[in-house]
Design goal:
Elements: E1 2-9, H1 16-24, H2 32-37, E2 44-51, E3 57-64, H3 72-79, E4 84-90, H4 97-108, E5 113-119, H5 126-140, E6 153-154, H6 163-176, E7 188-196, E8 200-206, E9 211-213, E10 217-221, E11 226-234, E12 237-239, E13 241-243, E14 247-253, E15 265-268, E16 275-284, E17 292-293, E18 296-302, E19 305-313, E20 319-320, E21 325-336, E22 343-348, E23 354-362, H7 372-381, H8 384-394, E24 400-401, H9 402-409, H10 413-425, E25 429-432, E26 435-438, H11 439-459, E27 466-467, H12 468-473, H13 479-491, E28 495-498, E29 501-504, H14 513-529, H15 536-541, H16 547-559, E30 563-565, E31 571-573, H17 574-590, E32 593-594, H18 596-603, H19 607-619, E33 623-626, E34 629-632
Parallel strand pairs: 1-3, 1-4, 4-5, 5-6
Antiparallel strand pairs: 2-3, 7-8, 7-15, 8-14, 9-13, 10-11, 10-15, 11-12, 11-14, 16-21, 16-23, 17-20, 18-19, 18-22, 19-21, 22-23, 24-26, 25-26, 27-29, 28-29, 30-31, 32-34, 33-34
Helix pairs in contact: 8-10, 11-13, 14-16
The protein binds guanosine-5'-triphosphate and magnesium ion.
């Protein structure tokens, strides 16, 4: 069974609703006001089955739209999900303003198939009918409804003339319509919300992709509310599931009518993401009177949704002229669920007229994007096998997960895997743990790690390496890719990792002979001096290396705690201070108290050294000052 959604379109009073009723027996004007005024105000729905040429059943769902110019926004909520259109033109009136506007909208939405229908054939004589036929042919020349591909069918809802021809034309057009993908991620843009006695909350819509089953849990976009599917109806009959291309009614648990509205979308939980920004390709109708300027505010319609949007035009020109197209970023006041490939219409802010439309290319744009036009060109015209690696490339050394790609594309894992197979095979894309990364980006990351290390060693010849964390901060890689790149260069024996320290292989601290000798001399001078240390400047003055080098060596010795500075002037060797500690601890056994004189006697140092040393011991909590004396702790 093939399910196809047929939309009507055309000027007010041209006989759309009457035609749907003549075909299906269903009056799609369901509102009391519609019946009273004899016009369609909101969307109406009907359905019928026809036998397809291959013997299968063809299930047609009709979306009947209003023709009144004031209700174009309702019309827009209905035509989003249609597979083919009946462009209805009354034979006694021919082409009128909303014939044109609706047809513009259909073209902008990328509707590919349909049937031009001349209604009220009973109301004109055959000559008049032929004239209108020629007029309509002329109007449709060069479009998707051009004859002879889409022959014009003349009908009368009043007499029934031509209805069989129209059914045959519907069967033929439906056979050519590409079936929607029932295995894709399901999306149901809501067009009606109501309560039904005995059921509770019901929403309806055209299921534009995927399958929805009873008991599924879905998320309401963009409110985030979760609902459970209590029941499914397709074309007014209970069903276990609804598949893409079907008019669908869902009985929901977990939401009231106040929580739901036309324009919201049902989709799987935790899979897709709403957005306030989307990069799009948009074009302006030739009939539009003036160019669309950067930062213009427009009415934005996509699927059943309607909102305002600010248009930020990409590229230097900063405007899109009538009959031209360009790339732009749309900024919405509230997050909405949009996916690449979604079509939309824009209408002038005031007065409200349709001025253009286009297609969403990227609903997850990055803040900074230097290569944006190239990227958007690929999204606009590239094959799936190009789009996925390009999306991975754009994430740079952050990479992207499969879940991330699903959010960006709206594609299932299977579809993404298919689009990735070649790139993974040729190793233009690498899979590292959960993350996919563009191979040249990963190679650049590896070489940038090496050059960062090289630079670090040059600037810090006396330091043994850079900490992992510091090195990572110098890249903008994700931690997963950073670790993988580090492992890779270590595997190539280009770096060494010691604990938290990373260094280029064989680099670390490189001391020239003189420096190494000087370091030894300083150490010796202090270790042999014990507590009676020389002045640091005297030691440094005796070295072969210059003052700055000498100072660096001292810094290194202090950092490694070989030398310990206890005051501005006094530096001791580690071993001397350790010896002092032992001496004081031993003294405690004899007497827990000690004055300065006693300390001088014990250590043999002069007062000049004794005071700073005692203060050092206080700081180290070896001793505590009590009056003029020290208590040993
Ligand atoms: N003579 C004749 N009248 C028709 C035919 N089809 C529709 N009408 C009449 O035309 C009027 C408008 O018909 P509708 O079907 O309501 O027109 P519509 O296109 O749905 O109008 P909107 O939904 O308001 O845009 C009604 O009075 C119908 O009875 C037809 O084939 N022949
Ligand atoms: Mg109508």
């Amino acid at each position: 069974m093939k399910s196809i959604i047929v939309g009507t379109a055309g000027h007010i009073d041209h006989g759309k609703t009457a035609l749907v009723k003549a075909l299906t027996g269903i009056d799609a004007d369901r509102l009391e006001e519609e019946k009273r005024r004899g016009i369609t105000i909101d969307l109406g729905f009907a359905h019928m089955d026809l036998p397809a040429a291959n013997g299968e059943t063809l299930r047609l769902g009709f979306v009947d739209v209003p023709g009144h110019e004031r209700f174009v926004r309702n019309m827009l909520a209905g035509v989003g999900g249609i597979d083919l259109v009946l462009l209805v033109i009354a034979a006694d009136e021919s082409i009128k303003p909303q014939t044109r506007e609706h047809f513009d909208i259909l073209q902008l939405l990328g509707v590919k198939r349909g049937i031009p229908v001349l209604t009220k054939s009973d109301a004109v004589d055959p000559e008049m009918l032929d004239v209108v036929r020629l007029e309509v042919e002329e109007f449709l020349r060069g479009t998707f409804l051009e004859s002879p591909r889409s022959p014009i069918v003349a009908v009368s809802a009043l007499t029934g003339a031509g209805l069989d021809d129209l059914k045959r034309a519907l069967i033929a057009a439906a056979a050519q319509a590409e079936p929607r993908d029932s295995r894709a991620i399901p999306r149901l843009p809501i067009d009606r919300v109501f309560t039904m006695k005995g059921f509770g909350t019901v929403v309806t819509g055209t299921l534009i992709s995927g399958t929805i089953r009873k008991e599924d849990e879905l998320e309401v976009f963009s409110s985030g509310r979760r609902v459970r599917i209590r029941g499914v109806q397709v074309h007014g009959q209970a069903a276990d599931e609804a598949v893409a291309g079907q008019r669908t009614a869902l009985n929901l648990a977990g939401a009231n009518t106040e929580d739901l509205a036309r324009g919201m979308t049902l989709a799987p939980t935790a899979t897709l993401a709403a957005t306030r920004r989307a990069d799009v390709q948009l074009s302006l109708l030739p009939s539009t009177s003036r160019p669309l300027k950067d930062r213009a505010r427009v009415h934005f319609h996509s699927n059943t949704m309607e909102t305002v949007a600010e248009v930020r035009i990409h590229g230097g020109n900063k405007k899109v002229s009538p009959n031209e197209s360009g790339f732009a970023r749309l900024v919405l006041p509230e997050p909405a669920l949009l996916l690449p490939g979604d079509r939309f219409i824009i209408r002038q802010f005031s007065p409200v007229v349709t001025i253009g439309g286009g297609v969403v290319l990227d609903a997850a744009p990055l803040k900074r994007a230097a290569t944006l036009p190239d990227f958007l060109n690929v999204l606009a015209a590239g094959a799936d096998e190009q789009i996925v690696p390009t999306r991975i490339m754009r994430q740079g050394s952050k990479g992207i997960s499969m879940a991330g790609l699903t959010r960006e594309t709206g594609w299932t894992w299977e579809k993404i895997e298919r689009a990735l197979a070649a790139a993974l095979g040729q190793r233009t894309v690498l899979r590292i743990g959960e993350v996919l990364v563009y191979r040249p980006t990963f190679d650049t990351l590896k070489s940038s790690l090496l050059s960062t290390l090289d630079e670090f060693h040059k600037k810090n010849p006396l330091v043994n390496g850079i900490s992992r964390e510091q090195l990572r901060e110098q890249t903008d890689a994700s931690s997963e890719l950073f670790s993988a790149a580090l492992d890779a260069v270590r595997g190539d024996k280009k770096i060494e990792i010691a604990g938290e320290l990373v260094r280029l292989a064989g680099r670390g601290v490189v001391m020239k002979d003189e420096e190494a000798e000087s370091k030894k001399k300083i150490e010796e001078a202090f270790s042999t001096a014990g507590l009676k240390v020389p002045a640091l400047y005297e030691v440094l003055a005796r070295l072969k290396v210059d003052k700055t080098r000498a100072q660096k060596i001292v810094t290194l010795l202090l950092r490694d705690k070989v030398l310990i500075k206890i005051s501005e002037e006094l530096v001791f060797h580690r071993t001397a201070l350790e010896e002092l500690r032992r001496l004081i601890v031993a003294q405690k056994k004899l007497s827990p108290k000690m004055d300065v004189a006693k300390f001088k006697e014990l250590t043999g140092v002069s007062r000049k050294y004794a005071i700073p040393l005692l203060e050092y011991l206080d700081r180290e909590r070896v001793t505590r000052r009590v009056g003029d004396a020290r208590e040993i702790l």
